């Protein structure tokens, strides 16, 4: 029996709960969800908690963070120190090298593992493999409709509501992108960690009024060859910033945790 906890019950959290029955062949129980405020009649009588200690007291084997960078900072080490494995959706939090080292240290000292899902993108398997062969260049372009950038620093750069043509709202390193756009560009951190790191991974972010999907383009060149991956992800109907694929990728991490065959 796998005991599962969640942090956050928004677009990703709700889809994870709905998808677990399809993804897990082993017996499991969702022992609780940490939310900002108590939610009555959550789903299937799952309890919601507002304090991490209440969730830890349910002795989950694995906790899925799908809340935001602050949640990783606030709870990550405590979860790992309690020997509970952690799936991190908000991978951009790891652009903070101090936090990265703290989490790694907490995991090394316990038997708990940190799972980083591919999330909204794909090709991470090819990228980590190409890294071992030797990488020369990794570039990533994210194109999202203007409404996906509302509530971000892009609002001060362009008129998102009146945008007539595609505008580059950021060009720079993966580390800067992940920090400047914490709710939108966690995948830049995933690509950086799998490949050339936060400084060397080049990122461009674009607000495009002519598209409806979130379009992710990864270009990699190295000693083993080169590849380009383009994903046109449907945005979650609950949160336009988040691609619908993300929650399924996160759920698959939980399935891998419980499975003897990892894919
Ligand atoms: N790796 C990837 O490909 C992706 C990662 N993400 C990350 O996942 C996070 C969640 O995404 P969504 O579900 O779309 O966001 P959402 O905004 O729909 O839901 C997040 C929920 O978490 C709750 N929450 C926030 N901080 C919390 C805390 N400290 N404790 C308890 N609850 C807290 C919020 O109240 C909200 O209900 C994003 O903020 C982003 O960091 C999002 C999309 C893709
Ligand atoms: O879901 C997406 O398209 C990517 C995203 O928001 C993130 O990386 O934080």
From TrEMBL:
Active-site annotation: 216
EC number: 1.4.1.21
Keyword terms of this UniProt record: NAD, NADP, Oxidoreductase, Pyridine nucleotide biosynthesis
Pathway(s) annotated for this protein in UniProt: Cofactor biosynthesis; NAD(+) biosynthesis; iminoaspartate from L-aspartate (dehydrogenase route): step 1/1
Aspartate dehydrogenase domain mapped to chain residues: 164-250
InterPro entries: Asp/hSer_DH_NAD-bd (IPR005106), Asp_DH (IPR002811), Asp_DH_prok (IPR020626), L-Asp_DH (IPR011182), NAD(P)-bd_dom_sf (IPR036291)
Enzyme class: oxidoreductase
Family in the record: Belongs to the L-aspartate dehydrogenase family.
UniProt-listed NCBIfam families: PRK13303.1-2 (NF009827), PRK13303.1-3 (NF009828), PRK13303.1-4 (NF009829)
Name of protein: L-aspartate dehydrogenase
Organism, scientific name: Paraglaciecola arctica BSs20135
């Amino acid at each position: 029996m796998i005991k599962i906890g969640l942090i956050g019950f928004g677009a990703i959290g709700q889809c994870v709960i709905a998808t677990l029955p399809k993804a897990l062949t082993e017996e499991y129980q969702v022992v609780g969800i940490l939310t900002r405020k108590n939610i009555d009649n959550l789903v299937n009588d799952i309890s919601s908690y507002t304090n991490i200690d209440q969730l830890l007291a349910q002795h989950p084997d694995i906790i899925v963070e799908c809340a935001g960078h602050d949640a990783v900072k606030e709870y990550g080490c405590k979860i790992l120190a309690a020997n509970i494995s952690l799936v991190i959706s908000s991978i951009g939090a790891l652009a903070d090298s101090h936090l990265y080292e703290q989490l790694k240290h907490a995991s090394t000292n316990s038997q708990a593992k940190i799972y980083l899902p591919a999330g909204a993108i794909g090709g991470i398997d090819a990228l980590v493999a190409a890294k071992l062969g030797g990488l020369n260049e990794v570039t990533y372009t994210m194109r999202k409709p203007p409404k996906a950038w509302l509530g971000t620093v892009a609002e001060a750069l362009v008129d998102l509501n009146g945008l007539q043509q595609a505008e580059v709202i950021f060009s720079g390193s993966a580390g800067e992108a992940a920090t400047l756009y914490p709710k939108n560009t966690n995948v830049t951190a995933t690509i950086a960690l799998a490949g050339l790191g936060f400084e060397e991974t080049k990122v461009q972010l674009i607000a495009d009024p002519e598209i409806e999907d979130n379009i992710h383009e990864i270009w990699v060149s190295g000693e083993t060859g080169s590849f380009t991956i383009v994903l046109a992800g449907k945005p979650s109907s609950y949160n336009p910033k988040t691609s619908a694929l993300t929650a399924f990728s996160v759920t698959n991490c939980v399935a891998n945790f419980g499975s003897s065959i990892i894919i």
